[in-house]
Amino acid sequence: MTQLKSTMAGSVFKINVNVGDQVESGQVVLILESMKMEIPVEAEASGEVAEINANEGDFVNEGDVLVTLK
Amino acid sequence: MKKVLIANRGEIASRVIRTCKRLGIETVAVYSEADAEMPFVKEADAAFLIGPPPIQQSYLQGEKIIELALREAVDAIHPGYGILSENSEFVKRVEAAGITFIGPDAETIQKMGDKIIARQTMQQASVPVVPGTDEGIVSLEEAQKIAREIGYPVMLKASAGGGGVGMIRCESEQALSQQFESVKNRAKMYFGSDAVFLEKFITNARHIEVQIFGDAHGNIVHLFERNCSVQRRNQKVIEEAPSPNLSKEAKNKLYAAAVNAAQAVNYKNAGTVEFIVDENEHVYFLEMNTRLQVEHPITEEVTGFDLVEWQLEVAKGNELPVKNQADIHLQGHAIEFRLYAEDPKTFMPSPGGIQAFNFVDEADVRVDYGYRENNKVTPFYDPLIAKIIVHANTREEAIEKSKKYLASFEIEGLKTNHSLFAEILNEDAFVKGNYTTAIIENWLKKLEGAK
Questions:
Q1: H/E run at residue B107
Q2: What is the pLDDT of residue B335?
Q3: Which end of chain B is less congested by CB atoms within 10 angstroms, N or C?
């Protein structure tokens, strides 16, 4: 299990993956919006999306889990 | 005009309040739950909470703001920049409520807000525009065909975009193909319209803009130019007035084009006409901003006028405080530095608390700040913390003075781009004054190369 955590506070602008998807290391899994800027969040390792822990539009804090990979 | 509501936040709200106070005008501020502790809330004569932190639920709540304005019996609304300032529907609703909107009329805002219509309007007025499309582009095939005609690199832009958002540079047909759908989707999502168009990307370009002002009596003047070529992510970081390394002929061409552009739309109040100037000093219209700009203070420093006061005068229906172009003179040189809460090299936003914020009062240095010590810069709004504006007799003196002042300027507790200023002030291209919009990119490349 790898947890992809938010590196900054902001809102979830767009989620690019679904549960069950295979993602590659470096793939943009979701996009955060902070201070009027889009921040792409990349998978740090390859794996299958086990759980999506946030919804589009949610406000997340630094360190919050966004996506869980297995 | 006795009472003004400021439909904005941060440094620009404080800036507008300052002039209102000097003129004996009462001020009303609106603020979100995230901004309760900010200076502008305390500086206003009255301040009202309008909603939770997200901008859609607070500062963009036009109806709520108008209701409050009516309840508080304000005479006028100042929109600042961004937020509702270029929203023509809001302007119409404000005026329908019998309140004065401090800015141009709704029709002008609508016309200039649509970049495709703005291009067409300028072409009709014989103002040169960047080579590109005059209609929205529907399909990728059409985009590819046009891009081949004008030549790569091209800029793919959202018609309803602005402020550096909703545009992307495409170096090749492959890049254009990859970006086309995503720019369209983003345009739809951000601006509510998926109309896109193409412009030739002008290499070695400078971004130079002209401040213009019009009144309801048909007077239009320009207040010289600002060079805003120091940019990251298509957004400005350092601006200066007047522009270095620009011939008298090119300047006159810019002023004439800007005044023409303003006359073409019968412009009233403060506006800025943005141009791209290429290495041969060819001048191309880029867009017109129908509001006060973030960087307006450098124009105030070199002309000696208070542009917010001018805005209020024009909104009252009065003539421009100075309506003869010949009576407007340049006095020295001014540079503005935008202090952002962001990483100084990656430019990634970096919200956080301000633990220390110290700067001294000095003649000819102005600090327009939105936050003070113990305030939090939250992720909900843009990262601008303060603007440092330095004025001197000559450009050389302004640069020297800036270096000294910035070295004594302290901000702690969060990442800021403070260290970038000294780096750019020491860049050869900046010192010479012949820098282009690639100056930050080139500086970063040099850093990478030095590793």
A1: helix B106-113
A2: 98
A3: C
